[in-house]
Amino acid sequence: MHQTPQVIIIGRPNVGKSTLFNRLVGKRIALVDDQPGVTRDRRFGEAVLLGMEFTAVDTAGWEDEDPGSLPGRMRAQTEVSLKGADIALFVIDARAGVTPLDEEIARWLRGQNVPVVLVANKAEGRAGEPGLLESYSLGFGEPVALSAEHGEGVADLFEALQPLIEKDESGDTHLTPEVNVPVELDEDGEVIENDLSAAPLHLAVVGRPNAGKSTLINRLLEEDRLLTGPEAGITRDSIAVDWEWTDPKSGQLRPVRLVDTAGMRKKARVIDKLERLSVLDAQRSIDYAEVVVLLLDATRGLETQDLKIANLVLEEGRALIIAINKWDVAQEPSSLFNGIRAALEEGLAQLRGVPLIAVSAVTGKGLDNLLNAAFDVREAWSRRIPTSALNRWFDDALSANPPPAPGGKRIKLRYITQNKTRPPSFVVFGTRLDALPKSYERYLMNSIRRDLGFGAVPVRLALRSPKNPYAS
Predict the structure, then answer these.
(1) Residues 422-445: pLDDT tens digits?
(2) Are residues 158 and 15 located together in one domain of the fold?
(3) 39 is in an annotated binding site
(4) Which of the listed residues 137, 170, 203 is the one where a domain comes to its end?
(5) Residues 206-215: pLDDT tens digits?
(6) Predicted structure pTM score
(7) Residue 121 annotated as part of some ligand binding site
(8) Does the annotation list 245 as a binding residue?
(9) 260 annotated among ligand-binding-site residues
(10) Residues 124 and 249 grouped into a single domain
(11) Does 101 have pLDDT greater than 70?
(12) Is 445 assigned to a binding site?
């Protein structure tokens, strides 16, 4: 499969790299704020600039700090990202002029074997003119005067990139795993089950800060793709990575889109604007996921916030898996596992039997089990039951436990149909359904999960009565 050229955006903090990235991809997907150092992980996006297609890569701000510090590790991530790049956009702040850190980045870029396009951002108005002239001293020729925020100078950026991208496309082609496989849809717009194995599994990893989400994804990828460290709250943007998992049982390659998210603390503790944006970004990732892995910290056990996150996932109708990370350092693991299982049975009473898996992002323990469970629950989450088989089950369920007759008046449940999948949703038709107790609705939903193979995936059940023509 042909891959578009990769254009990496590099510069010191707060020069507008993420704003330029959002401008190129046409969406506000990278978090942007006035404070420096917002971006910490590489983010990829498909960009189209006046009809020219390429992959834009947003990177962390380049800082001159100790390699062991968080800014130092962010810089190392940026340096690594240049290895796969075809073109580098070196962004400076035209209003601030050329700084010593800009000169240091320029020296480093001149030693790399990647063509560089110098971009003087924030160049709108007269305030950026001195910095624009000063940028010639960096040795990359004529700078592109740009305002990423307002879209000024986009045509000039196109002219600077076009010869480099056309040269790259005329050379060697790039190969990338076939992950975005088209799938066949039925008349309701749902994925046909036979094609489900070819579609990438959209898997989001969520949890409290410092549970090891980024470390877990790095272990799956077998590379330091995401920034990690002992500090809590390192991840801010939700980062999606396309990957292929080799099923150890069949040897089959299974496409997966992994999504790392920011840690989600209690709402009362989130007072920083940037953290609020990060949490909203994580919630959007849940909305677009098929399966969500809630990662617990084995050294801290199950907390109330974990149950709130789990409830959020279930309210969105997403399939849920709970993984206990740091199992390699867990104390009394057997009692810990049983305790968490018991607490989940009580705290998630509406969905008993959620898969609970012990893993270690450091040693790799349990990760294949986690992926197997994720594909299994997606299959259940996408299952459609034929109407005839569904109503045979429905008759048996009513015979085993007939609906009550409040006030001596019978509630008639006539038939059931599945109106959608992902999550599985059913409609029961009958009369006097407004008098049906909630306990009986729960009986039907639990029986659907148990008897029809849906397992621990969220099930939706709606009740519908025919309209009374004499009601008015």
Answers:
(1) 999 999 999 989 999 999 999 999
(2) yes
(3) no
(4) 170
(5) 999 989 999 9
(6) 0.73
(7) yes
(8) no
(9) yes
(10) no
(11) yes
(12) no
